[in-house]
Write a structure and sequence with these properties.
The structure holds 2 protein chains of 2 kinds. By secondary structure, chain A is mainly α. In chain A, about 70% of the residues lie in helices and about 0% in strands. The radius of gyration of chain A is 17 Å and the shape is elongated. Chain B is about 80% helix and about 0% strand. A two-stranded antiparallel ribbon of chain B has the order 1-2. The chains are: A mainly alpha, B mainly alpha. Chain A: It is found in: Cell membrane.
Chain lengths: ~140, ~500
Protein backbone atom coordinates (compact mmCIF):
# COMPACT_ATOMS: atom_id res chain seq x y z
CA UNK A 1 0.00 0.00 0.00
CA UNK A 2 3.08 2.26 0.45
CA UNK A 3 1.35 5.23 2.03
CA UNK A 4 -1.71 5.44 -0.21
CA UNK A 5 -4.95 6.51 1.41
CA UNK A 6 -7.02 3.67 2.81
CA UNK A 7 -10.19 5.78 2.54
CA UNK A 8 -9.70 6.34 -1.16
CA UNK A 9 -8.92 2.70 -1.66
CA UNK A 10 -12.16 1.57 -0.05
CA UNK A 11 -14.20 4.31 -1.69
CA UNK A 12 -12.95 3.39 -5.14
CA UNK A 13 -14.06 -0.18 -4.64
CA UNK A 14 -17.64 1.08 -4.38
CA UNK A 15 -17.42 4.12 -6.62
CA UNK A 16 -15.93 2.49 -9.65
CA UNK A 17 -18.78 0.10 -10.49
CA UNK A 18 -21.27 2.91 -9.85
CA UNK A 19 -19.42 5.31 -12.13
CA UNK A 20 -19.10 2.71 -14.87
CA UNK A 21 -22.81 1.87 -14.70
CA UNK A 22 -23.60 5.57 -14.70
CA UNK A 23 -21.44 6.07 -17.80
CA UNK A 24 -23.36 3.35 -19.63
CA UNK A 25 -26.59 4.97 -18.48
CA UNK A 26 -25.44 8.30 -19.94
CA UNK A 27 -24.47 6.61 -23.18
CA UNK A 28 -27.87 4.93 -23.59
CA UNK A 29 -29.81 8.01 -22.60
CA UNK A 30 -27.89 10.22 -24.97
CA UNK A 31 -29.75 10.21 -28.23
CA UNK A 32 -32.64 12.51 -27.38
CA UNK A 33 -31.81 13.60 -23.87
CA UNK A 34 -28.79 14.99 -22.03
CA UNK A 35 -25.95 12.50 -22.18
CA UNK A 36 -24.30 10.61 -24.98
CA UNK A 37 -21.10 8.84 -25.89
CA UNK A 38 -18.81 11.76 -25.14
CA UNK A 39 -19.98 12.45 -21.59
CA UNK A 40 -20.39 8.76 -20.90
CA UNK A 41 -16.83 8.16 -22.06
CA UNK A 42 -15.55 10.96 -19.83
CA UNK A 43 -17.27 9.47 -16.79
CA UNK A 44 -15.92 6.00 -17.54
CA UNK A 45 -12.41 7.36 -18.07
CA UNK A 46 -12.73 9.25 -14.77
CA UNK A 47 -13.61 5.98 -13.05
CA UNK A 48 -10.47 4.33 -14.41
CA UNK A 49 -8.32 7.29 -13.47
CA UNK A 50 -9.70 7.20 -9.93
CA UNK A 51 -8.57 3.59 -9.81
CA UNK A 52 -5.15 4.65 -11.11
CA UNK A 53 -4.85 7.22 -8.31
CA UNK A 54 -5.95 4.78 -5.64
CA UNK A 55 -3.74 1.96 -6.91
CA UNK A 56 -1.32 2.60 -9.75
CA UNK A 57 -1.41 3.27 -13.50
CA UNK A 58 0.06 -0.17 -14.18
CA UNK A 59 -2.88 -1.83 -12.43
CA UNK A 60 -5.30 0.00 -14.72
CA UNK A 61 -3.49 -1.54 -17.65
CA UNK A 62 -3.98 -4.95 -16.02
CA UNK A 63 -7.63 -4.16 -15.43
CA UNK A 64 -8.37 -3.26 -19.05
CA UNK A 65 -8.83 -6.23 -21.36
CA UNK A 66 -7.24 -4.31 -24.25
CA UNK A 67 -4.82 -1.38 -24.48
CA UNK A 68 -6.26 2.17 -24.65
CA UNK A 69 -4.96 2.43 -28.21
CA UNK A 70 -7.00 -0.60 -29.28
CA UNK A 71 -10.00 0.99 -27.58
CA UNK A 72 -9.85 4.20 -29.55
CA UNK A 73 -9.01 2.45 -32.80
CA UNK A 74 -12.08 0.30 -32.29
CA UNK A 75 -14.17 3.33 -31.41
CA UNK A 76 -13.10 5.18 -34.53
CA UNK A 77 -13.84 2.13 -36.60
CA UNK A 78 -17.34 1.77 -35.10
CA UNK A 79 -18.10 5.41 -35.82
CA UNK A 80 -16.98 4.98 -39.42
CA UNK A 81 -19.00 1.78 -39.71
CA UNK A 82 -22.14 3.51 -38.45
CA UNK A 83 -21.78 5.98 -41.29
CA UNK A 84 -21.02 3.34 -43.90
CA UNK A 85 -23.84 0.91 -43.00
CA UNK A 86 -26.52 2.96 -44.79
CA UNK A 87 -24.24 3.21 -47.82
CA UNK A 88 -24.42 -0.58 -48.21
CA UNK A 89 -28.20 -0.19 -48.19
CA UNK A 90 -27.96 2.38 -50.98
CA UNK A 91 -28.67 5.39 -48.80
CA UNK A 92 -26.45 8.46 -48.27
CA UNK A 93 -23.57 8.31 -45.81
CA UNK A 94 -24.60 8.62 -42.15
CA UNK A 95 -28.32 8.32 -42.80
CA UNK A 96 -29.91 7.04 -39.60
CA UNK A 97 -31.06 3.43 -39.85
CA UNK A 98 -33.31 2.14 -37.08
CA UNK A 99 -34.51 -1.25 -35.94
CA UNK A 100 -38.29 -1.35 -36.47
CA UNK A 101 -39.12 -2.38 -32.87
CA UNK A 102 -37.63 -0.80 -29.74
CA UNK A 103 -35.58 -3.30 -27.70
CA UNK A 104 -36.26 -3.83 -23.99
CA UNK A 105 -34.07 -1.67 -21.70
CA UNK A 106 -32.08 -0.14 -24.60
CA UNK A 107 -35.02 1.54 -26.33
CA UNK A 108 -34.83 2.45 -30.01
CA UNK A 109 -31.58 1.22 -31.51
CA UNK A 110 -30.07 2.41 -34.76
CA UNK A 111 -26.85 3.54 -36.39
CA UNK A 112 -26.68 6.74 -34.28
CA UNK A 113 -26.39 4.46 -31.26
CA UNK A 114 -23.53 2.62 -32.92
CA UNK A 115 -21.88 5.98 -33.60
CA UNK A 116 -22.33 7.02 -29.98
CA UNK A 117 -20.84 3.77 -28.74
CA UNK A 118 -17.88 4.42 -31.04
CA UNK A 119 -17.46 7.90 -29.52
CA UNK A 120 -17.76 6.36 -26.04
CA UNK A 121 -14.89 3.93 -26.68
CA UNK A 122 -12.86 6.60 -28.46
CA UNK A 123 -13.11 9.02 -25.55
CA UNK A 124 -12.22 6.37 -22.96
CA UNK A 125 -9.30 5.22 -25.11
CA UNK A 126 -7.85 8.66 -25.84
CA UNK A 127 -8.19 9.97 -22.29
CA UNK A 128 -6.69 6.86 -20.71
CA UNK A 129 -3.91 6.86 -23.30
CA UNK A 130 -2.99 10.46 -22.50
CA UNK A 131 -3.43 10.37 -18.74
CA UNK A 132 -1.83 6.98 -18.12
CA UNK A 133 1.19 8.02 -20.19
CA UNK A 134 1.50 11.19 -18.12
CA UNK A 135 0.90 9.34 -14.86
CA UNK A 136 3.56 6.73 -15.60
CA UNK A 137 6.26 9.35 -16.17
CA UNK B 1 -26.58 8.96 -53.46
CA UNK B 2 -23.31 10.56 -54.33
CA UNK B 3 -20.52 8.88 -52.44
CA UNK B 4 -17.89 10.23 -54.85
CA UNK B 5 -18.01 13.54 -52.98
CA UNK B 6 -17.42 11.80 -49.65
CA UNK B 7 -14.60 9.57 -50.94
CA UNK B 8 -11.75 12.09 -50.53
CA UNK B 9 -12.76 12.44 -46.86
CA UNK B 10 -13.61 8.82 -46.09
CA UNK B 11 -10.50 7.29 -47.68
CA UNK B 12 -8.01 9.14 -45.44
CA UNK B 13 -10.18 8.37 -42.40
CA UNK B 14 -10.15 4.68 -43.26
CA UNK B 15 -6.39 4.84 -43.86
CA UNK B 16 -5.93 6.52 -40.48
CA UNK B 17 -7.89 3.78 -38.72
CA UNK B 18 -5.88 1.10 -40.53
CA UNK B 19 -2.65 2.85 -39.58
CA UNK B 20 -3.77 2.88 -35.94
CA UNK B 21 -4.64 -0.80 -36.14
CA UNK B 22 -1.19 -1.53 -37.58
CA UNK B 23 0.53 0.51 -34.86
CA UNK B 24 3.21 -2.07 -34.24
CA UNK B 25 3.97 -2.74 -37.90
CA UNK B 26 5.72 0.38 -39.27
CA UNK B 27 6.50 -1.22 -42.62
CA UNK B 28 2.87 -2.04 -43.17
CA UNK B 29 1.86 1.50 -42.23
CA UNK B 30 4.28 2.95 -44.75
CA UNK B 31 2.97 0.94 -47.68
CA UNK B 32 -0.65 1.23 -46.59
CA UNK B 33 -0.17 5.00 -46.70
CA UNK B 34 1.10 4.79 -50.28
CA UNK B 35 -1.87 2.62 -51.26
CA UNK B 36 -4.34 4.85 -49.39
CA UNK B 37 -3.11 8.09 -50.92
CA UNK B 38 -3.02 6.45 -54.34
CA UNK B 39 -6.68 5.50 -54.02
CA UNK B 40 -7.45 8.96 -52.76
CA UNK B 41 -5.74 10.57 -55.74
CA UNK B 42 -7.73 8.27 -58.05
CA UNK B 43 -10.99 9.12 -56.29
CA UNK B 44 -10.24 12.83 -56.55
CA UNK B 45 -9.54 12.50 -60.29
CA UNK B 46 -12.80 10.60 -60.78
CA UNK B 47 -14.63 13.34 -58.91
CA UNK B 48 -12.92 16.00 -61.01
CA UNK B 49 -14.04 14.23 -64.16
CA UNK B 50 -17.56 14.05 -62.85
CA UNK B 51 -17.70 17.71 -61.87
CA UNK B 52 -16.33 18.63 -65.27
CA UNK B 53 -19.02 16.66 -67.06
CA UNK B 54 -22.11 17.25 -64.98
CA UNK B 55 -21.49 20.41 -62.96
CA UNK B 56 -21.30 21.05 -59.23
CA UNK B 57 -21.66 17.88 -57.15
CA UNK B 58 -23.41 18.07 -53.81
CA UNK B 59 -23.98 15.65 -50.99
CA UNK B 60 -26.28 15.95 -48.00
CA UNK B 61 -24.72 14.07 -45.09
CA UNK B 62 -27.21 11.82 -43.34
CA UNK B 63 -29.92 12.82 -45.87
CA UNK B 64 -30.69 15.97 -43.92
CA UNK B 65 -31.66 18.44 -46.62
CA UNK B 66 -29.78 21.72 -47.05
CA UNK B 67 -29.75 24.20 -45.36
CA UNK B 68 -30.49 22.16 -42.22
CA UNK B 69 -27.93 19.40 -42.45
CA UNK B 70 -24.27 19.42 -43.37
CA UNK B 71 -23.80 19.98 -47.06
CA UNK B 72 -20.79 19.01 -49.09
CA UNK B 73 -20.52 20.84 -52.38
CA UNK B 74 -17.68 20.46 -54.84
CA UNK B 75 -17.46 22.82 -57.77
CA UNK B 76 -14.69 22.75 -60.36
CA UNK B 77 -12.34 24.81 -58.18
CA UNK B 78 -12.88 22.49 -55.22
CA UNK B 79 -12.41 19.41 -57.39
CA UNK B 80 -9.15 20.75 -58.83
CA UNK B 81 -7.89 21.41 -55.30
CA UNK B 82 -8.91 17.91 -54.20
CA UNK B 83 -7.00 16.39 -57.10
CA UNK B 84 -3.89 18.43 -56.33
CA UNK B 85 -4.11 17.52 -52.66
CA UNK B 86 -4.34 13.85 -53.69
CA UNK B 87 -1.18 14.22 -55.77
CA UNK B 88 0.73 15.97 -52.98
CA UNK B 89 -0.48 13.35 -50.50
CA UNK B 90 0.71 10.54 -52.74
CA UNK B 91 4.10 12.17 -53.32
CA UNK B 92 4.69 12.80 -49.63
CA UNK B 93 3.59 9.26 -48.75
CA UNK B 94 6.18 7.91 -51.20
CA UNK B 95 8.84 10.30 -49.94
CA UNK B 96 8.11 9.38 -46.35
CA UNK B 97 9.06 5.75 -47.03
CA UNK B 98 12.64 6.89 -46.54
CA UNK B 99 12.18 10.45 -45.38
CA UNK B 100 10.52 9.72 -42.02
CA UNK B 101 12.53 7.77 -39.46
CA UNK B 102 11.19 4.71 -37.65
CA UNK B 103 10.98 6.55 -34.37
CA UNK B 104 8.54 9.11 -35.73
CA UNK B 105 6.48 6.31 -37.29
CA UNK B 106 6.42 4.56 -33.93
CA UNK B 107 4.99 7.71 -32.37
CA UNK B 108 2.14 7.90 -34.84
CA UNK B 109 3.30 9.82 -37.90
CA UNK B 110 1.02 7.96 -40.29
CA UNK B 111 -2.35 8.23 -38.51
CA UNK B 112 -1.71 11.96 -38.20
CA UNK B 113 -0.66 12.24 -41.82
CA UNK B 114 -3.96 10.72 -42.91
CA UNK B 115 -5.98 12.85 -40.51
CA UNK B 116 -4.26 15.94 -41.88
CA UNK B 117 -5.21 14.96 -45.42
CA UNK B 118 -8.77 14.31 -44.28
CA UNK B 119 -8.95 17.80 -42.81
CA UNK B 120 -7.55 19.40 -45.95
CA UNK B 121 -9.92 17.49 -48.22
CA UNK B 122 -12.85 18.22 -45.94
CA UNK B 123 -12.11 21.93 -46.12
CA UNK B 124 -12.03 21.76 -49.93
CA UNK B 125 -15.29 19.80 -50.11
CA UNK B 126 -17.52 21.41 -47.51
CA UNK B 127 -20.42 23.70 -48.24
CA UNK B 128 -21.00 24.84 -44.69
CA UNK B 129 -19.12 27.47 -42.76
CA UNK B 130 -19.16 25.73 -39.40
CA UNK B 131 -18.14 22.50 -41.05
CA UNK B 132 -15.26 24.41 -42.62
CA UNK B 133 -14.21 25.46 -39.13
CA UNK B 134 -14.30 21.85 -37.98
CA UNK B 135 -12.11 20.72 -40.89
CA UNK B 136 -9.67 23.53 -40.14
CA UNK B 137 -9.44 22.24 -36.59
CA UNK B 138 -8.96 18.63 -37.70
CA UNK B 139 -6.18 19.77 -39.99
CA UNK B 140 -4.54 21.98 -37.37
CA UNK B 141 -4.66 19.42 -34.58
CA UNK B 142 -2.88 16.94 -36.82
CA UNK B 143 -0.40 19.57 -37.99
CA UNK B 144 0.42 20.67 -34.42
CA UNK B 145 1.52 17.16 -33.56
CA UNK B 146 3.29 16.55 -36.87
CA UNK B 147 5.21 19.78 -36.34
CA UNK B 148 6.33 18.81 -32.85
CA UNK B 149 6.73 15.06 -33.44
CA UNK B 150 10.32 14.10 -32.76
CA UNK B 151 10.70 16.71 -30.07
CA UNK B 152 13.96 18.34 -31.07
CA UNK B 153 14.58 21.71 -29.46
CA UNK B 154 14.14 23.70 -32.68
CA UNK B 155 10.93 21.82 -33.47
CA UNK B 156 9.38 22.63 -30.11
CA UNK B 157 10.34 26.28 -30.42
CA UNK B 158 8.81 26.46 -33.90
CA UNK B 159 5.71 24.61 -32.75
CA UNK B 160 4.99 27.04 -29.93
CA UNK B 161 4.84 29.96 -32.36
CA UNK B 162 2.85 27.93 -34.84
CA UNK B 163 0.32 26.71 -32.28
CA UNK B 164 -0.24 30.05 -30.58
CA UNK B 165 -0.90 32.00 -33.77
CA UNK B 166 -3.05 29.35 -35.32
CA UNK B 167 -5.13 29.03 -32.18
CA UNK B 168 -5.65 32.76 -32.29
CA UNK B 169 -6.82 32.46 -35.89
CA UNK B 170 -9.16 29.62 -34.96
CA UNK B 171 -10.74 31.58 -32.14
CA UNK B 172 -11.29 34.53 -34.49
CA UNK B 173 -12.80 32.19 -37.06
CA UNK B 174 -15.10 30.67 -34.45
CA UNK B 175 -16.24 34.02 -33.01
CA UNK B 176 -16.88 35.39 -36.48
CA UNK B 177 -18.91 32.30 -37.30
CA UNK B 178 -20.96 32.68 -34.12
CA UNK B 179 -21.65 36.33 -34.91
CA UNK B 180 -22.57 35.50 -38.47
CA UNK B 181 -25.01 32.88 -37.28
CA UNK B 182 -26.53 35.40 -34.90
CA UNK B 183 -26.90 37.86 -37.76
CA UNK B 184 -28.35 35.57 -40.41
CA UNK B 185 -29.52 32.36 -38.71
CA UNK B 186 -27.69 30.09 -41.14
CA UNK B 187 -24.19 28.86 -41.87
CA UNK B 188 -24.86 27.02 -45.09
CA UNK B 189 -22.68 28.77 -47.66
CA UNK B 190 -25.31 28.69 -50.38
CA UNK B 191 -27.98 30.12 -48.13
CA UNK B 192 -25.59 32.72 -46.75
CA UNK B 193 -24.94 33.77 -50.33
CA UNK B 194 -28.67 34.37 -50.70
CA UNK B 195 -29.33 36.01 -47.37
CA UNK B 196 -26.26 38.08 -46.69
CA UNK B 197 -26.58 40.72 -49.46
CA UNK B 198 -29.97 41.72 -48.02
CA UNK B 199 -28.92 41.62 -44.38
CA UNK B 200 -28.87 45.01 -42.69
CA UNK B 201 -26.77 46.79 -41.59
CA UNK B 202 -24.12 46.36 -44.26
CA UNK B 203 -21.46 47.69 -41.93
CA UNK B 204 -21.85 44.67 -39.69
CA UNK B 205 -21.42 42.27 -42.59
CA UNK B 206 -18.32 44.12 -43.64
CA UNK B 207 -16.88 43.97 -40.12
CA UNK B 208 -17.55 40.23 -40.02
CA UNK B 209 -15.89 39.75 -43.37
CA UNK B 210 -12.79 41.50 -41.98
CA UNK B 211 -12.75 39.06 -39.04
CA UNK B 212 -12.73 36.24 -41.57
CA UNK B 213 -10.01 37.97 -43.52
CA UNK B 214 -7.78 38.05 -40.43
CA UNK B 215 -8.62 34.45 -39.49
CA UNK B 216 -7.91 33.08 -42.96
CA UNK B 217 -5.08 35.54 -43.45
CA UNK B 218 -3.16 34.08 -40.51
CA UNK B 219 -3.59 30.58 -41.93
CA UNK B 220 -2.67 31.67 -45.44
CA UNK B 221 0.29 33.69 -44.10
CA UNK B 222 -0.46 37.04 -45.75
CA UNK B 223 1.13 40.33 -44.72
CA UNK B 224 1.29 41.28 -41.82
CA UNK B 225 0.22 37.97 -40.28
CA UNK B 226 2.84 35.67 -41.79
CA UNK B 227 5.64 35.64 -39.23
CA UNK B 228 4.73 32.28 -37.69
CA UNK B 229 5.53 30.55 -40.98
CA UNK B 230 9.26 31.20 -41.44
CA UNK B 231 9.67 30.70 -37.69
CA UNK B 232 8.38 27.15 -37.77
CA UNK B 233 8.36 25.58 -41.25
CA UNK B 234 12.05 24.72 -41.38
CA UNK B 235 12.05 22.68 -38.17
CA UNK B 236 10.20 19.37 -38.85
CA UNK B 237 11.44 16.69 -41.30
CA UNK B 238 11.34 17.66 -44.97
CA UNK B 239 8.40 15.39 -45.80
CA UNK B 240 6.30 17.24 -43.22
CA UNK B 241 7.44 20.69 -44.39
CA UNK B 242 6.65 19.75 -47.99
CA UNK B 243 3.19 18.59 -47.00
CA UNK B 244 2.53 21.76 -45.00
CA UNK B 245 3.86 24.09 -47.67
CA UNK B 246 1.88 22.31 -50.36
CA UNK B 247 -1.44 22.24 -48.56
CA UNK B 248 -1.88 24.18 -45.33
CA UNK B 249 -1.43 27.79 -46.39
CA UNK B 250 -3.31 26.96 -49.58
CA UNK B 251 -6.34 25.90 -47.58
CA UNK B 252 -6.33 29.36 -46.03
CA UNK B 253 -6.10 30.93 -49.48
CA UNK B 254 -8.82 28.60 -50.75
CA UNK B 255 -11.12 29.61 -47.90
CA UNK B 256 -10.51 33.29 -48.69
CA UNK B 257 -11.31 32.77 -52.35
CA UNK B 258 -14.42 30.81 -51.41
CA UNK B 259 -16.00 33.14 -48.89
CA UNK B 260 -15.12 36.38 -50.65
CA UNK B 261 -16.50 35.26 -53.99
CA UNK B 262 -19.54 33.45 -52.63
CA UNK B 263 -20.85 35.22 -49.57
CA UNK B 264 -19.07 38.51 -48.84
CA UNK B 265 -19.84 40.46 -51.97
CA UNK B 266 -21.44 43.47 -50.33
CA UNK B 267 -18.67 46.06 -50.62
CA UNK B 268 -16.40 44.95 -53.45
CA UNK B 269 -14.61 48.26 -53.92
CA UNK B 270 -13.36 48.42 -50.36
CA UNK B 271 -12.45 44.74 -49.99
CA UNK B 272 -10.82 44.47 -53.40
CA UNK B 273 -8.63 47.50 -52.81
CA UNK B 274 -7.66 46.08 -49.45
CA UNK B 275 -6.81 42.75 -51.08
CA UNK B 276 -4.60 44.41 -53.67
CA UNK B 277 -2.70 46.36 -51.01
CA UNK B 278 -2.24 43.23 -48.91
CA UNK B 279 -1.24 41.24 -51.99
CA UNK B 280 1.48 43.72 -52.93
CA UNK B 281 2.88 43.91 -49.41
CA UNK B 282 2.77 40.12 -49.01
CA UNK B 283 4.70 39.59 -52.24
CA UNK B 284 7.34 42.18 -51.43
CA UNK B 285 7.97 41.21 -47.80
CA UNK B 286 8.06 37.53 -48.69
CA UNK B 287 10.61 37.88 -51.43
CA UNK B 288 12.77 40.37 -49.52
CA UNK B 289 12.73 38.05 -46.53
CA UNK B 290 13.89 35.24 -48.79
CA UNK B 291 16.74 37.32 -50.17
CA UNK B 292 18.27 37.56 -46.70
CA UNK B 293 18.17 33.82 -46.02
CA UNK B 294 21.05 31.38 -46.25
CA UNK B 295 19.17 28.31 -45.10
CA UNK B 296 17.65 26.33 -47.96
CA UNK B 297 14.34 25.64 -46.21
CA UNK B 298 13.92 29.07 -44.61
CA UNK B 299 14.49 30.63 -48.01
CA UNK B 300 11.81 28.46 -49.54
CA UNK B 301 9.48 29.21 -46.61
CA UNK B 302 9.70 32.94 -47.33
CA UNK B 303 8.88 32.23 -50.95
CA UNK B 304 5.66 30.51 -49.85
CA UNK B 305 4.58 33.86 -48.42
CA UNK B 306 5.48 35.84 -51.50
CA UNK B 307 3.58 33.37 -53.72
CA UNK B 308 0.47 33.68 -51.54
CA UNK B 309 0.53 37.35 -52.52
CA UNK B 310 -0.20 36.42 -56.14
CA UNK B 311 -3.24 34.40 -55.08
CA UNK B 312 -4.58 37.36 -53.10
CA UNK B 313 -3.89 39.58 -56.09
CA UNK B 314 -6.15 37.40 -58.23
CA UNK B 315 -8.83 37.67 -55.58
CA UNK B 316 -8.46 41.44 -55.40
CA UNK B 317 -8.76 41.95 -59.15
CA UNK B 318 -11.89 39.80 -59.03
CA UNK B 319 -12.45 39.50 -62.77
CA UNK B 320 -12.92 36.11 -64.36
CA UNK B 321 -9.46 36.26 -65.93
CA UNK B 322 -7.89 37.18 -62.60
CA UNK B 323 -9.64 34.42 -60.66
CA UNK B 324 -8.71 31.93 -63.38
CA UNK B 325 -5.14 33.15 -63.01
CA UNK B 326 -5.29 32.66 -59.24
CA UNK B 327 -6.62 29.10 -59.61
CA UNK B 328 -3.99 28.17 -62.19
CA UNK B 329 -1.38 29.82 -59.99
CA UNK B 330 -2.53 27.83 -56.98
CA UNK B 331 -2.00 24.51 -58.79
CA UNK B 332 1.32 25.68 -60.20
CA UNK B 333 2.68 26.88 -56.88
CA UNK B 334 1.63 23.76 -54.97
CA UNK B 335 3.45 21.53 -57.45
CA UNK B 336 6.55 23.71 -57.72
CA UNK B 337 6.85 24.42 -54.01
CA UNK B 338 6.37 20.85 -52.85
CA UNK B 339 8.93 19.67 -55.43
CA UNK B 340 11.47 22.26 -54.26
CA UNK B 341 11.10 21.23 -50.63
CA UNK B 342 11.53 17.58 -51.54
CA UNK B 343 14.70 18.50 -53.47
CA UNK B 344 15.97 20.43 -50.46
CA UNK B 345 15.46 17.20 -48.52
CA UNK B 346 17.46 15.19 -51.05
CA UNK B 347 20.26 17.76 -50.93
CA UNK B 348 20.29 17.50 -47.17
CA UNK B 349 20.43 13.74 -47.42
CA UNK B 350 23.41 13.93 -49.78
CA UNK B 351 25.37 16.60 -47.95
CA UNK B 352 23.90 16.67 -44.47
CA UNK B 353 23.20 20.39 -44.48
CA UNK B 354 20.64 23.02 -45.43
CA UNK B 355 23.19 25.82 -45.17
CA UNK B 356 23.82 27.40 -48.56
CA UNK B 357 27.34 28.44 -47.50
CA UNK B 358 28.37 24.86 -46.86
CA UNK B 359 26.77 23.32 -49.92
CA UNK B 360 28.08 23.39 -53.47
CA UNK B 361 29.26 21.35 -56.39
CA UNK B 362 26.15 19.23 -56.66
CA UNK B 363 25.83 19.99 -60.37
CA UNK B 364 28.96 17.94 -61.00
CA UNK B 365 27.91 14.90 -58.98
CA UNK B 366 24.13 15.02 -59.41
CA UNK B 367 23.25 16.62 -62.76
CA UNK B 368 19.72 15.17 -62.74
CA UNK B 369 19.04 16.60 -59.34
CA UNK B 370 20.26 19.96 -60.59
CA UNK B 371 17.86 19.74 -63.51
CA UNK B 372 15.09 18.68 -61.15
CA UNK B 373 15.74 21.81 -59.12
CA UNK B 374 16.05 24.11 -62.11
CA UNK B 375 12.66 23.27 -63.64
CA UNK B 376 10.40 24.15 -60.68
CA UNK B 377 12.74 27.00 -59.69
CA UNK B 378 12.39 28.63 -63.10
CA UNK B 379 8.66 27.93 -63.02
CA UNK B 380 8.45 29.69 -59.66
CA UNK B 381 10.33 32.68 -61.07
CA UNK B 382 7.88 32.78 -63.97
CA UNK B 383 10.02 32.08 -67.01
CA UNK B 384 8.43 30.75 -70.20
CA UNK B 385 7.53 28.05 -71.13
CA UNK B 386 6.98 26.92 -67.52
CA UNK B 387 3.72 26.95 -65.62
CA UNK B 388 4.64 30.02 -63.56
CA UNK B 389 4.95 32.12 -66.69
CA UNK B 390 1.37 31.44 -67.78
CA UNK B 391 0.08 31.91 -64.25
CA UNK B 392 1.73 35.29 -63.92
CA UNK B 393 0.81 36.26 -67.46
CA UNK B 394 -2.85 35.68 -66.69
CA UNK B 395 -2.67 37.72 -63.50
CA UNK B 396 -0.70 40.55 -65.10
CA UNK B 397 -3.05 40.79 -68.05
CA UNK B 398 -6.04 40.84 -65.73
CA UNK B 399 -4.32 43.58 -63.76
CA UNK B 400 -3.66 45.67 -66.87
CA UNK B 401 -7.24 45.25 -68.00
CA UNK B 402 -8.43 46.48 -64.62
CA UNK B 403 -6.01 49.41 -64.78
CA UNK B 404 -4.27 48.39 -61.55
CA UNK B 405 -0.78 49.31 -62.68
CA UNK B 406 0.84 49.47 -59.24
CA UNK B 407 0.09 45.85 -58.38
CA UNK B 408 1.14 44.75 -61.88
CA UNK B 409 4.55 46.38 -61.51
CA UNK B 410 4.91 44.99 -58.01
CA UNK B 411 4.12 41.51 -59.29
CA UNK B 412 6.66 41.81 -62.10
CA UNK B 413 9.33 43.22 -59.80
CA UNK B 414 8.78 40.44 -57.29
CA UNK B 415 9.10 37.94 -60.15
CA UNK B 416 12.51 39.35 -60.92
CA UNK B 417 13.55 39.12 -57.27
CA UNK B 418 12.29 35.53 -57.17
CA UNK B 419 14.52 34.77 -60.15
CA UNK B 420 17.43 36.39 -58.29
CA UNK B 421 16.71 34.31 -55.23
CA UNK B 422 16.40 31.06 -57.17
CA UNK B 423 19.63 31.75 -59.03
CA UNK B 424 21.30 32.36 -55.68
CA UNK B 425 20.27 28.87 -54.60
CA UNK B 426 21.38 27.48 -57.94
CA UNK B 427 24.76 29.14 -57.65
CA UNK B 428 25.36 28.17 -54.04
CA UNK B 429 24.04 24.63 -54.00
CA UNK B 430 24.78 23.35 -57.48
CA UNK B 431 27.21 25.56 -59.38
CA UNK B 432 29.98 26.76 -57.07
CA UNK B 433 32.73 24.27 -56.15
CA UNK B 434 31.98 22.05 -53.17
CA UNK B 435 32.68 23.86 -49.95
CA UNK B 436 33.17 20.69 -47.93
CA UNK B 437 35.93 18.18 -47.88
CA UNK B 438 35.50 15.76 -50.79
CA UNK B 439 35.66 12.86 -48.33
CA UNK B 440 32.59 14.11 -46.47
CA UNK B 441 30.78 14.38 -49.78
CA UNK B 442 31.53 10.88 -50.95
CA UNK B 443 30.54 9.20 -47.71
CA UNK B 444 26.89 10.03 -48.00
CA UNK B 445 26.08 7.44 -50.63
CA UNK B 446 23.18 7.46 -53.07
CA UNK B 447 19.64 8.73 -52.90
CA UNK B 448 16.89 6.14 -52.34
CA UNK B 449 14.63 5.70 -55.35
CA UNK B 450 11.57 6.42 -53.20
CA UNK B 451 12.83 9.95 -52.69
CA UNK B 452 13.53 10.51 -56.38
CA UNK B 453 10.26 9.10 -57.68
CA UNK B 454 7.82 11.47 -55.91
CA UNK B 455 10.06 14.45 -56.64
CA UNK B 456 10.13 13.51 -60.31
CA UNK B 457 6.36 13.03 -60.21
CA UNK B 458 5.85 16.60 -59.02
CA UNK B 459 8.45 18.09 -61.33
CA UNK B 460 6.93 16.36 -64.34
CA UNK B 461 3.45 17.34 -63.16
CA UNK B 462 4.53 20.98 -63.06
CA UNK B 463 6.18 20.65 -66.45
CA UNK B 464 3.01 19.22 -67.99
CA UNK B 465 0.99 22.04 -66.46
CA UNK B 466 3.19 24.45 -68.41
CA UNK B 467 3.30 22.43 -71.64
CA UNK B 468 -0.44 21.84 -71.70
CA UNK B 469 -1.23 25.33 -70.54
CA UNK B 470 -4.04 25.79 -73.03
CA UNK B 471 -6.47 23.17 -71.65
CA UNK B 472 -5.37 23.92 -68.09
CA UNK B 473 -6.16 27.60 -68.54
CA UNK B 474 -9.52 26.71 -70.03
CA UNK B 475 -10.35 24.66 -66.94
CA UNK B 476 -9.28 27.52 -64.70
CA UNK B 477 -11.57 29.83 -66.63
CA UNK B 478 -14.49 27.46 -66.16
CA UNK B 479 -13.72 27.20 -62.45
CA UNK B 480 -13.49 31.00 -62.21
CA UNK B 481 -16.77 31.32 -64.08
CA UNK B 482 -18.42 29.15 -61.43
CA UNK B 483 -16.88 31.28 -58.68
CA UNK B 484 -18.23 34.44 -60.27
CA UNK B 485 -21.73 33.03 -60.68
CA UNK B 486 -22.79 32.06 -57.17
CA UNK B 487 -26.30 31.31 -58.45
CA UNK B 488 -24.91 28.07 -59.94
CA UNK B 489 -23.61 27.04 -56.53
CA UNK B 490 -26.83 28.08 -54.79
CA UNK B 491 -28.90 26.21 -57.35
CA UNK B 492 -26.81 23.06 -56.94
CA UNK B 493 -27.05 23.08 -53.15
CA UNK B 494 -30.54 24.35 -52.50
CA UNK B 495 -32.15 22.97 -55.64
CA UNK B 496 -35.39 24.58 -56.65
CA UNK B 497 -35.67 26.80 -53.57
CA UNK B 498 -35.82 30.53 -54.39
Amino acid sequence: MNGRSLLLNVAVRYLMPLLLIFSVFLLLRGHNEVGGGFVGGLVAAAAFMLYAIAHSPAEVHDLLPVSPRTLFTLGLFMALLSGLLPVFGNQPFQTGLWLPEPLPVLGKVGTPFLFDTGVYLLVIGVILHILLTLAED
Amino acid sequence: MNLAVMAPILLPLTSAILALAAWRAPGLQRWAAVAGTFLQFGAALALLNRVNQSGIQTFQVGSWPAPFGITLAVDLFGAIMLAVSGLVGLSVALYALNGIDDERVAYGFYPLFHILLMGVNGAFATGDLFNLYVWFEVMLMASFVLMALGGTRAQLEGSVKYVVLNLLASSLFLSATGLLYGLTGTLNLAQLALVLPETQPHGLTLALSMLYLVAFGIKAAIFPLFFWLPASYHTPPVAVTALFSGLLTKVGAYAMLRVFTLIFRTDPIFTNTLFLVLAGLTMVTGVLGAAAQWDFRRLLSFHIISQIGYLVMGLGLASQAALAGAIYFMVHVILAKTALFLIAGIVERLRGSFDLHQLGGLYRSQPWLALGFALPALALAGLPPFSGFFAKLMLVRAGLEAGQYIIVFTALGVSLLTLFSMSKVWGEVFWKPAAMEPAAVADRGGVPVWMILPTALLVVGGLLLGLFAEPAIQWSHQAAFQLLHPDLYIQAVLGGLP
